[in-house]
Automatic annotation (TrEMBL):
Pathway entry: Protein modification; protein ubiquitination
UniProt function note: E3 ubiquitin-protein ligase that mediates ubiquitination and subsequent proteasomal degradation of target proteins. E3 ubiquitin ligases accept ubiquitin from an E2 ubiquitin-conjugating enzyme in the form of a thioester and then directly transfers the ubiquitin to targeted substrates.
Region Disordered, annotated ranges: 1-24
Stated name of the protein: E3 ubiquitin-protein ligase
Keywords: Biological rhythms, Cytoplasm, Developmental protein, Metal-binding, Nucleus, Transferase, Ubl conjugation pathway, Zinc, Zinc-finger
Domain (SIAH-type): residue spans on this chain: 130-190
Domain notes: The RING-type zinc finger domain is essential for ubiquitin ligase activity.
Native source organism of the sequence: Champsocephalus gunnari (Mackerel icefish)
């Protein structure tokens, strides 16, 4: 077992970053869809003929000679170019705007007419339900088209969704490709200490610091980089807790090849947590929200702490 080296952050203090916010989820980058922008055809008046609503559940729907990309283009929001999906509401003159934009607007972006009272467009909703809509990240390479009800769920886990900066605290707004995450961390978060080896000690100093505090450090082993995060926060008011988790700088699939163990040990006591590392694609906040990590309260922390410093043994293995 190797002790933490003091390379990087001064005095072996593993880049304690204090943040004020309550650790809300890092806003995922809103990427507008450029996909179905091809040929936004005009003058669509033809209705589906009796033969077009064929029973085959194939998604190569054609209505009145229009291919589905042209049809989906009709659902583009004029403000954000994302799709207008059910419930579909229109202005009094019949213009559509997506529900997200609608909440920020006081009048119709097309005719400046009133947006309320809302008028529901059930016919467009029915058409939307027969169409496959491209994933939001199609411009990044995702080839999937899905029923609108399945889109949000897929986009949450889409492999082509840009990676956000894995540092907790959501103060860094960086996002980009997986390959760019490590260069970003080394460039923009130089204070984070890295330790080599599969068995290390993550030393969190000054755990009594008031307020929400994060301790972050990197561990390199098995040709991969892991981010170790300890967060102190009040998930429930008046009840301060510590949350410790290991994230892989990699995809969910890659994360499945590893297991990690966190262990507090000392004063004739031991507390252990074992799990699969989370991909940074999932982030820290989801782990904390679901308590899918090592969770302990301040009293337990004090049982293991030494002079206000808490050492967590971290072991990563391949499985
Ligand atoms: Zn919109
Ligand atoms: Zn309008
Ligand atoms: Zn996708
Ligand atoms: Zn960052």
């Amino acid at each position: 077992m190797s002790r933490p080296s003091s390379e990087g952050a001064g005095g072996g203090k593993p880049g304690a970053v204090k943040h004020g916010g309550s650790g809300g989820p890092a806003a995922s980058a809103a990427i507008s869809v450029a996909a179905a922008a091809a040929a936004a055809s005009t003058g669509v008046s033809s209705l589906p003929g009796p033969g077009t609503s064929a029973a085959a559940p194939s998604f190569s729907l054609t209505v009145g000679g229009l291919q589905s990309p042209e049809l989906t283009a009709l659902f583009e929001c004029p403000v954000c170019f994302d799709y207008v999906l059910p419930p579909i509401l229109q202005c009094q003159a019949g213009h559509l705007v997506c529900n997200a934009c609608r909440q920020k607007l006081s009048c119709c972006p097309t005719c400046r007419g009133p947006l309320s009272p809302s008028i529901r467009n059930l016919a467009m909703e029915k058409v939307a339900s027969t169409l496959p809509f491209p994933c939001k990240f199609s411009s990044a390479g995702c080839l999937l088209s899905l029923h609108h009800s399945e889109k949000p769920e897929h986009e949450e886990v889409c492999e082509f969704r840009p990676y956000t900066c894995p540092c907790p605290g959501a103060t860094c707004k960086w996002h980009g490709a997986l390959e760019a995450v490590m260069p970003h961390l080394m460039h923009a978060h130089k204070s984070i200490t890295t330790l080599q080896g599969e068995d290390i000690v993550f030393l969190a100093t000054d755990i009594n610091l008031p307020g929400a505090v994060d301790w972050v450090m990197m561990q390199s082993c098995f040709s991969h980089h892991f981010m170790l995060v300890l967060e102190k926060q009040e998930k429930y008011e008046g009840h301060q807790q510590f949350f410790a988790v290991v994230l892989l700088i990699g995809t969910r699939k890659q994360a499945e090849n590893f297991a990690y163990r966190l262990e507090l040990n000392g004063n004739r006591r031991r507390l252990t947590w074992e799990a699969t590392p989370r991909s940074i694609h999932d982030g820290v906040s989801a782990a904390i929200m679901n308590s899918d990590c090592l969770v302990f309260d301040t009293s337990i922390a004090h049982l293991f702490a030494d002079n206000g410093n808490l050492g967590i043994n971290v072991t990563i293995s391949m499985c």
